[in-house]
Amino acid sequence: MSNESSSHGAGLKLSLLSGVFLLLLLAFIGFKFKTADDGLESQVHRLIKKEDLLSGMRINLLKSVDIEKGAVMAVTDELSRTLAEQSRQMADAVERDRVELGRIIEQDRLTRETALYEEFNTCWSEMRSLDKQILEYAVENTNLKASALSFNEGGKTLERFERSLADLGRNLPLTVQGGQAQTLAWEALRAGFKVYFLLPPHIAASDPAEMDRIEKEIRLHEESVKESLKELEIVVPEANRPALREAAAAYADFQAVTAEVIRLSRLNTNVKSFELSLGRKRKVAAQCEEILTGLQEAVRSRKFEATK
Question: Which sequence spans correspond to the domains of the chain?
Fold first, then answer.
């Protein structure tokens, strides 16, 4: 009887131990499956997040490029500044997504994605540097300001010069000196208009050597005006001298306008921003967009594998 009781107790203990072991085994297996499921879920979540970030980056990059072109082509300072700020905001959005994307890629440590991300970083750094330069040039608008100054103030002062010389020519005596005065007034006016007509090509020029050539020609015509006015002082009768003094004052004002037009034109910010925007910037932007497309394709291929 005692032996049977002992044997029964040992069997019960063994059953209990087996049951505990089985429960621990099932719990361990469940934990492993849950960990695997959690890992897969986390991986899929990161893939979706990367896809969203890359889509946003591509959209905002293209928006930034498009708006920047508007800033470059804008005809007023206010519009240039507004569009430049909008372009910067789009680029800043790309930058925020780029940083967040980098953190996820660093977690995944996938060779292909890491290589493309680093390639984009290099391209993006150059693009941001170009953006800064282009937008700074665009908002200065020196070529547009030079053109407006030449057309408005330049045109007005030259008209004053023309009217003064016309007044001077009235009632000149029919003498040799009178004829000389008419000829000198015409030569002064012709040289003044030649200066005026040389300003637009100077404003449009992008080559410093071409600007030098135009400025040299402008100086020659200015000297011609000065010489004609100086000789007029000798041959013009006293009655016509007030008109001569007004002509000299008008041309001095025109010279001041010309000097300011040349200064603004030399800064050449509109031409520089236009050339950079349609030249180097266009190529770099296309390269950055191409890299993002490649990175997006790499992420999508991983996403497909993870969800199979």
Answer: 39-140+276-307, 142-271
